[in-house]
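Q: My labmate handed me this sequence with no annotations at all. I'd like to see what the chain might look like in three dimensions before we decide whether it's worth expressing. Could you predict it?
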Amino acid sequence: MPIVRIKDIRKWNMEEMEKKLEEYRSELLEQRALQASGGAIENPGRIKEIRKTIARILTVINERKKGSKTEE
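A: Here is what I predict for the chain of 72 residues:
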């Protein structure tokens, strides 16, 4: 999966974000398992990239939750 920018994430709806979040978390789990088992990871920088993307998605989710509370 390519690098996902925050402006792209903001275009997604909540369902898309939650689906992508699950996909990235499972990919991160696979990459970490491969690394822990001593396997050669094709792209070692991918783990860092996945972690940052997960953080970006969670940031936008929290922004939306916080924004909806202030509007009430």
